[in-house]
Amino acid sequence: MGGLLVPILWDVDVNCGEQEMGHFDPPNGQTCAAYMSDFLSTNPGYLNDPDATANCAYCPFSKGSEYLATLNKPRHVYGWRDICITFLFVLSSYALVFILMKLRSKRSKTAS
């Protein structure tokens, strides 16, 4: 799955729909950006309207790479690694079939 997902989703910008946003109200007198600044400095995501003082909307991902990190694919190279593993599996399977066909006995070759 990593070989299919990582190369495609890594650099994609995420735009959350309204139903995918987390909504909250900041304390009185604070904007969404001021209230969430410490959180956003260490966590991915973005605020839909950072200057709002009520009904803040937070999306947990701003890039596809942030979503892939939740699937244990935190580096772009993991997708290519997974593609290589799949390729080696297919190649070794064909090689094994070829070798086993060459190692057949004369009796099994003529069996019908």
Structure in words:
The protein has 112 residues and is mainly alpha-helical. The protein has two domains: 1-11 and 64-104; 17-60, no CATH class. The protein is built from five helices and three strands; from the N terminus they run αβαββααα. It has a three-stranded antiparallel β-sheet, with helices on one face. Helix 1 (2-9) packs antiparallel against helix 4.
Write the layout of secondary structure elements.
Layout: H1 2-9, E1 22-24, H2 32-42, E2 46-47, E3 56-59, H3 64-70, H4 77-102, H5 106-110
Mean pLDDT: 88
Radius of gyration: 26 Å
What class do helices, strands and sheet pairing give?
mainly alpha
Number of strands: 3
Alpha-carbon distance between the termini? 41 Å
Major sheet size, sense and barrel closure:
3 strands, antiparallel
SS summary, helix count: 5
Helix content: 40-55%
Note the beta-strand portion.
5-15%
Order of helices and strands: HEHEEHHH
Overall number of structural domains: 2
